[in-house]
């Protein structure tokens, strides 16, 4: 009779065999006769279920790990894309607003230019203004033609200085005589007239006639 040492705990393999290692040699012993086929099949089934549960658990853990590892990256990418989209929309909205403001500003500027360029309709000349003009021109011509009979009048000189640049008040012929008159004024009055002519040249939107008269006044005085 051969003696086979019995382990403290029996370990069954997939086929229901009892496995025991003695000095590196694996020996198999048939399970006792009292374990019938039905129980052995049940044990095998339970082991399969256990392995299946373990496999499912490992797969689930792997899926969770993958989701934790790559899911965050996907979320970050989505957030970055969302931020880029919002930033792009904000930029487009700002550009539209700026373009609209520029358009409105250009329209306002054009309207202002049109108003400046529009010539004012000449106001009806009243009898008093007409008489003041006639009196001032008569005063001027007296200075040119008959200086002995001429007498200085501050009111007439003021009118001439105020209307030097306007052709509808002093025409070209009378303007030539006006230059002669200006040369006869005092130094202080000449200096003030030159400064006023320079200011007229610095103004925007002046006519060619005004510019030419201002330059002639500066040159003559």
Automatic annotation (TrEMBL):
Pfam family, one: WKF
Residue ranges with Basic and acidic residues bias: 73-108, 120-131
Domain of life (superkingdom): Eukaryota
Compositional bias segments (type: Basic residues): 109-119
Domain WKF: 138-198
Annotated region described as Disordered, given as residue ranges: 64-131
Listed name of the protein: WKF domain-containing protein
Organism: Boothiomyces macroporosus
Taxonomic placement: Eukaryota, Fungi, Fungi incertae sedis, Chytridiomycota, Chytridiomycota incertae sedis
